[in-house]
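#lab-general

N.A. 3:47 PM
ok so I finally got the sequence cleaned up, no stray characters, all 120 residues accounted for. can someone with queue access submit it? mine expired

B.Y. 3:52 PM
send it over

N.A. 3:53 PM
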Amino acid sequence: MSCFVRPLHSLNVAEWDIKIELSIVSDGLTALLHIAKHRPDIVIADLRMPGLDGFDMIHTLHNDPSFGEMDIVVVTGMHKEEIAARGGLPKGMTVLTKPVSFATLQGYVNAKESARARFQ
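B.Y. 4:20 PM
back already:
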């Protein structure tokens, strides 16, 4: 995510009527370290990131059972064929194609939080 887009995401998420802590990182390795430390409920990831890309980050999380309850949403401009050529994504992964509206992301987060609240 470019440094120009990050503040826009932060401002939009701050307006949601949801108790949420938002962390935005710029690359996959930093994301993995942050995820391991903070254990978020939902991760929204791009596939194209510098260094460790989204594919490697997602497969690392998916292959570690301690992250099994975490929801991962992929937001990408890549076509299905490009994703498949890179080895694909784990089954059942939610993939949203860019551009994704903030309303779509908010709806996804609301639905996941509502479902989580029902089962607690």
